[in-house]
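Recall from the previous lesson that a structure prediction takes nothing but the amino acid sequence as input. Here we apply that procedure to tRNA 2-methylthio-N6-isopentenyl adenosine(37) hydroxylase MiaE from Pedobacter puniceum. The sequence below is the only information supplied.
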Amino acid sequence: MFKLQLPTDPFWVKNVVESNIEEILTDHAYCEQKAATNAITLIIQNPNVPELVQEMAELVKEEMDHFKRVHDIIIKRGYTFGKERKDNYVNELMKFLKKGGGENQRTENMVDRLLLAAMIEARSCERFKVLSEHVTDKELAAFYHELMISEATHYTLFIGLARKYGKGIDVDKRWQEWLDYEGVIIKSYGKSETIHG
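The prediction returns the following tokens.
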């Protein structure tokens, strides 16, 4: 899926998720909030790109709707919405992000930020697929199947925008570099009660 190099082991669902549903839901809610924040950051960094601003404004609404839906499940089940968790996976991905370089590297930085977002959406989609197929809770299985489809469209959006605005940049080559990098760091994950953990 999405050419990700290491699939999530379904045993993650059985051994970690099913005994930590409350933790997973809290972490998931914060992931949705962070996805909205990332879209806002892309607006702030690229106010002169109207289509990007429009697309990200719509995405913020969708991600916050997902946040509310996860939060609704937490409340309905009598769980506690805990404190924000660090997302070490995303923090490691961010180390690979191109930064700086001034005005002449602005486009390259924007494309890289879009590819970072595409990578996070791709892995989230893959995790939601595994969750939907292996969790015994029927409500959550249906919920994660629906969100898997949504995450796939987000991935497509970010890749499409990177290709559209990455004139003169070998976006496919850079995407392969992201895939290679993610393929290394993901080996440390899949063992904790977080969406990316």
